[in-house]
Write a structure and sequence with these properties.
Layout lengths: L3 H7 L5 H10 L10 H15 L2 H10 L6 H26 L24 H15 L2 H13 L4 H32 L1
Length: 185
């Protein structure tokens, strides 16, 4: 099993900045305006959205002291729902034919009513996942909800910074792992 420290050490020298940024954004001074639990939920949802299992597993283990089982489930729920809704609403936003916007979505999203995590933490995790998945409509929607719940611009920016760094770490680690496999073949 890879630990978070082992994965950080596995980052190539050219990605030293990612290692430093990851350490920074996973601490409160690096993510001003967010609680440890919110930082953890954002990081976990981001790692899941980045689709690199060793990183999401290592983060989940590392965050076990900051997130309870319900909060872990909430971060997973945010990533899962955004995997679906980001595709759907990105299509709605980008399709030239606006008739699709008049049609009922017909997508079940019951978990959003009770995700196992508080509303603001869920929205922060959903915003981060939406940023990784590139859905502008969803980013706008989650940002508005967060601001209406009193999250500052700096808090929103911190969530997106966490998403950006976690995503970059996942992509870099996956590429390094693939390069190692290719060299061994």
């Amino acid at each position: 099993m890879n630990t978070l420290d082992a994965l950080k050490s596995a980052l190539p020298d050219y990605a030293k900045d990612l290692r430093l940024n990851l350490e920074s954004v996973l601490s409160e001074p690096g993510a001003p305006g967010l609680s440890d639990g919110q930082i953890g939920a954002i990081a976990l949802a981001s790692a899941i959205s980045a689709r690199y299992l060793p990183l999401s597993a290592a983060l989940e283990t590392a965050l076990a002291g900051k997130l309870g089982p319900g909060e872990i489930a909430g971060a997973r729920a945010a990533a899962a729902m955004m995997a679906m809704t980001n595709v759907y609403y990105r299509f709605m936003h980008l399709a030239e034919n606006k008739e699709y916007e008049t049609l009922r979505a017909g997508l079940r999203m019951n978990v959003m009513a009770n995700p196992g995590i508080d509303k603001v933490s869920f929205e922060l995790a959903a915003l981060a996942a939406s940023a990784i998945n590139g859905c502008g409509a969803c980013m706008d929607s989650h940002e508005k909800v967060l601001r209406a719940h009193g999250v500052t611009a700096q808090g929103v920016q911190s969530a997106v910074r966490i998403a950006a760094v976690v995503h970059a770490v996942a992509v870099t680690l996956e590429q390094a792992a693939q390069a190692t496999l290719a060299q061994a073949a």
